[in-house]
UniProtKB/TrEMBL annotation:
This is Cell division protein FtsA. Residues 6-195 form the SHS2 domain. The lineage of its organism: Bacteria, Candidatus Yanofskyibacteriota. Self-interacts. Interacts with FtsZ. Belongs to the FtsA/MreB family.
Length: 406
């Protein structure tokens, strides 16, 4: 049976995760390897030291190679971090054929015209251009306009952009690590690809990826990305607050958070399960107060949720996403986070699950892996969908239309 492999790499600020997936001819996808390394040289998801990041990337790649029995596949990177931006723009062109029939070429020109009308594009690289709607002579067309007739065609297009400098640093980091990069895609959309159902994307849903130093949100509606934002706060800030609050080293604070941290309403059960030796209700893990720990965690989490709520308001979707919120990233491992989300955003909420994968799927079941898995999944889809390699001219790299079309 012919198989095709793809490797997805998520350059996270705490860890770099690499996963190798393989698609069988029957459409099944299995995990053939996964490896991670602690990350150096990144800040808020952006590379600030190429040498250090390249070393970490090599480490993750080595770990991947050790874990895989196939591991040959094209390598794809996710681009996330602060500075990732989302813009919509319209472009109007005259239909070119004399008989007024709209052609594929016209669609391309309309999308190109939207790109020309983009504002504040200086110093930015376009990662994705996704046409979301068309109008012919001012009438909205809900399906493919090719073959319809008119004088003027207008496209509304979504653009996901990144600072050119960040993009260049990623390419340099891969070069320096000796890993040949096939293409790159926006990380929040890759996360969505790994954990959302088609129905959720249709109804309206938000992914909240709580990482180490960033929290990314990506909203989908009617199958298209509707909004995307990256906040510079993550679960690492919670650890820092615990370190300061209890005056303990970061490592100790991290252990305290992972082993005893919770935002569960009634956390009795959690505490007693995790710290059977501590009988006093208010005390966990030596002399640390459980209440104080929870307060510190909730304080910082509420910052993240305030930013999220503000954004939902800004884009007119406060309390208005029937598909609710799906929470991913390492920070989503905090017990009680789904209820907390439900309560604070007044929306349905669930934890991300990475399903339907065979092979070594246990290695990537933690929602911190959703990014790496999603990147590889998009790569597989693109290949199976017949997309040609985007590597080559700098003009064509990163321009994917196929993968995110319905
Ligand atoms: N069981 C747990 N409970 C609470 N937090 C956890 C748990 N496991 C991991 N985390 C937190 O998840 C964070 C790392 O998440 P993740 O791997 O998604 O980040 P990253 O992708 O490296 O960073 P970023 O996305 O900000 O660049 C750390 O702050 C870690 O403390
Ligand atoms: Mg991350």
């Amino acid at each position: 049976m012919r198989t095709y492999g793809a490797i997805g790499i998520d350059l996270g600020t705490e860890s770099i995760k690499a996963v190798a997936l393989e698609a069988g001819a029957d459409g099944s996808v299995k995990v053939v390897g996964a490896g991670a390394a602690l990350s150096e040289g990144l800040r808020k998801g952006v590379i600030v030291n190429i040498d250090a990041a390249a070393k970490s990337l090599s480490g993750a790649f080595e770990a991947l190679k050790k874990s895989t029995n196939a591991g040959n596949g094209n390598v794809y990177a996710g681009i996330g971090g602060v500075g990732l931006s989302f813009q919509k723009s319209k472009g109007l062109v005259a239909v070119s054929r004399a008989d007024g029939e709209v052609s594929k070429e016209d669609l391309k020109r309309a999308v190109a015209a939207s790109e020309n009308n983009l504002v504040r594009i200086q110093n930015r690289e376009i990662l994705h251009s996704i046409p979301i709607s068309y109008k012919i002579d001012n009438e909205t067309i809900t399906h493919d306009p090719v073959g319809l007739s008119g004088l003027k065609l207008e496209a509304e297009t979504l653009f996901i952009t990144v600072f050119a400098q960040h993009f260049k640093s990623i390419l340099k980091t891969f070069d320096e690590a000796g890993v040949s990069l096939e293409d790159a895609i926006s990380l929040p959309m890759a996360v969505a690809e790994a954990i959302l159902s088609k129905r959720e994307k249709e109804f309206g849903v938000m992914v909240l990826d709580i990482g180490f130093s960033t929290t990314s949100l990506c909203i989908f509606e009617e199958n298209y990305p509707y909004s995307l934002e990256v906040f510079p706060i993550g679960s690492g800030h919670i650890t820092n607050d615990i370190a300061v609050g209890f005056q303990i080293p970061i490592e100790e604070a991290e252990k305290l958070k992972i082993n005893y941290g919770t935002v569960e309403k009634n956390s009795e059960a959690h505490i007693s399960k995790k710290s059977a030796k501590n009988s006093a209700d208010d005390i966990v893990y030596g002399h640390y107060s459980r209440k104080k720990l929870t307060d510190i965690i909730e304080d910082r989490l509420s910052d993240i949720f305030e930013l999220t709520e503000k954004h939902l308001k800004k884009v007119g979707r406060e309390g208005l996403l029937p598909g609710g919120v799906v929470i991913a990233g390492g920070g989503s491992n905090l017990p009680g986070i789904a209820d907390y989300t439900r309560e604070h955003l007044k929306l349905p909420a669930r934890l991300a699950e990475i399903n339907n994968l065979g092979g070594l799927h246990d290695k990537v079941k933690n929602p911190a892996w959703a990014g790496a898995v999603g990147i590889a999944l998009v790569a597989l889809e693109k290949h199976i969908g017949g997309g040609t390699s985007a590597r080559g001219s700098k003009e064509t790299i990163m321009r994917w239309f196929r993968a995110f079309l319905p």
